[in-house]
Amino acid sequence: MKKSFALFALLLSFAIAFAQPANDDCSGLIDLGIAPICPVLDTFNNVNASQSVVFTSPTDNIPSCFTGGTIDRDVWFMFTVPPDGSVVDFTISIMGVDGPNGSILQPQVAVYRGDCELDGLQELNCATSALGSNDVKIDLLGLTPGLPYFLRVSDWSASASPNWGDFVFCIAEYVPVFNIGDEPFTAACAGTLYDSGGPAGDYSNSENYTFTVCPQDFTQCIFVDVQNFSTEFNFDYLNIFIGDDTNDPMLTSLDGFGSNVQLQIYGQCVTFQFTSDGSFTDAGFELTWQCSPDTCTVPPPSTCDNPTVIPSLPYASIDLTTCNAANAVNSSPCANDDWLQGEDVIFTYTSPGDECIAVNLTGTNNATAVGIFDDCPNTASQCIAVAGGGSGQANPTINAAFLELPGTYYIVVDNENSCTPFNIEVTQVTCPVVLPSAANCEDAITLNGCGELPAIVSVAPGQGDPNVIQDGVNEGCWGFFNPNFTWFFFQAQEDGNFAFVMEATNPAEASDIDFQVWGPITDITELCSYAYENQPIRSSYAAGADPTGLADIHPITNLPVTDVCETAVGDDFVSTIQVQTGEFYVVLVNDWGGQISSGAVSIDFGNTTPGVLDNLGANFMVTQDTAICPGESAQLLASGGEVYQWFPATGLSCVYCPNPVATVSQSTVYQVAINSLCNADTLEVQVGLLQVDAGPDITVCLNEDVQIVAGANFANVSYSWNAPPGFLSCTDCPDPIVTAVQAGTFNLSVTVTGPTCSFSDAMTLVVLPTAAPNYQISGDQSICFGETVNLGGTATPGVVYDWTSDPGGFVSSQSNPAVTPTATTTYYLQTTNGVCPISSFDSVTVTVSALPVINIANDTLICQGQTVTLGSTVVEPSVSYQWTPTTGLDNANAPTHWPRQPKLPATR
Predict the structure, then answer these.
(1) DSSP state letters, 481-546
(2) Are 776 and 752 in contact (CB under 8 A)?
(3) The model scores a pTM over 0.70
(4) Residue 248 confidence (pLDDT)
């Protein structure tokens, strides 16, 4: 029995080893179901499969692409196309897997339609894998809805040994594959796009190809995944546009190296453009797309063509991010624009011009930057302002950017190293006074007037001539430098210490400021020659973005400062300078690395001895009011400052100059803001057309006063009035007072004469014989706080009284109202009598003074012969004191005396 059992086991194992798969023939095929099916949730094999015979012709029985003349190891499957025709294009993948039977090697597949009867099938397509491969793929397009299709899977071998094994299926919807340049367009909802070299080759030189995807399916968002790109940096570009051609907004431009750039395209089309120059080529790119009927999951990117518009200021927005915003811009006119290499968000703001704005970012990652440009950064001509960028810096702020011209400005947020969250706030601010560049000693800016600081002042660094600093002559402690000079000077107005602390206006900037100080100099005309020919008395070349300056105690370390020269490894500060009244000193400041992108340095003179930097007696002046003849222009002139701004700009030849030419068509009042480093003022000048108007004819009562005005009191203009004797308060002024001294009709004329022209006019004055309203009014009065006074007198029958005041709040129709003003007030009286056509006017001013303050002692008891102080009143100006009774007092008019029981009235 043991022998019989062993034989049975042997036969069973032999049978299992050589068992054929159930789907070895078409009649036993495995039905995979309705496609697409990916993955097919099973593992299959063709181990021990045998040749199938489905055609009577031996030649037809071998699929057209199968390698070799036999087909010994085929197995069969079937899938069905959806009856509704929702999918008719498929990609079938067969992939070997390392299962119990090992992986199939060099698989091949043939596709049929029909049925499994002999000669009942028709071959549609066929594919075989390359030598050594364990997968094969075949595309089937335009299949018939509802029909079954048959798959014949085998392996091939170059020897007699089979390559059978385990494999899996994927029957997926067909995703088209294109090489850019082969076709210009597709309506496919999904696909893959390569450069012109395809998945294995490089692109070529001098290419300019476009490929547009406009899915035929309903689409609201197209997901694009640039799986990898490798192009010549700064020369060969993959550009992606939101729309059906390259005139639509550009979403991003990719060059260099990168991978996994995921984008979402709002709309129904996307256009890809690839351009290369005539030299170096590279591997190119691979990207896929997939359309969706749903909206995109991220907001549309803010690009130059599709920016986020700032409608008005102030503006604020929170919880923003540059992630998935794409890299729409990567260059600018800024000296350092490496920060633009990341994904960016772009805002636009349309400015009326002549304004300053501040941009503040919060909640950012390190290396975040913000910049303002006069156009899209790639094409801008001006880098208006930049803040941030570089390692270790977050939350950049642009304190004040001057938007001089009206137009649209671009604000860009970016992070060179990665994407970043951010909040943004844009506000309008008062423009700081930025002085013209003093890059040359001859243009040095005076520090006089800065004596009442500590304060921060800003100036614009320039360039300058590096040859003014000569080794062995005037270099101080300086070594190699790039000239970004700003020159200053001052004359000491008192004896004392000159000190300052200096840094970039934006402390976050990686500035490195050096400085030299020359002096003392006795003659202002020798300032520059002295600086060129002598060593400075203080010099700092210390490296780093720390504050620097003149100090006796280091403001950071709190250690004494005694040295006068700092090398590159110094601690930034040198000792203060003892100056004497009348001495001149020259200060040269240099932005060593040109890193002050905000365009300003800030200087705090708080530790300078008060008085040292007092004004030189600078006198801001502007020309007098002037009148011009029609068709002429007037030369205006302001002086005493270093920066000028005139407004309004209408009629002026220039706005930021000290000497504009004004051409006006009507009288205009111009203001000019004059600034030096630490002084500012605004002055006015009127430019009028030379003309004269004596005014309308008027009728008044006898003895009434009325003022007539023929013009303004312009420089170089004269007036000449002609009137009966005694009528005018002046005959050579523009605005005389007319007193109607007699009844009748009178002609009054005036002539105005300028440098090149003159004009005349006349008016008629009718004086009625009726007397003007008769009224009484007090003279100007002075009272103490709380007192009451009367303003007028006895009422005149037939006269109507109308009182008002300045400050306002008082009205009365009485002839003699009583008032108790709490502050100095002018009261105006207008009277009418029903006969005279012009009211009579008059006024009275009541000056109110505070009551004197009296402090007297409490009642007290003393012995005979003792003394006591009766009060502690502080003497006030213009106040007199008088004690009563005076018996026993040392001084009855003093505010603090003794003894008895006197009273102390005080009067002002």
Answers:
(1) ----EEEEEEE-SSSEEE-EEEEESSTTS---EEEEEEEEES-GGGHHHHHHHS--SEEE---SSS
(2) no
(3) no
(4) 83
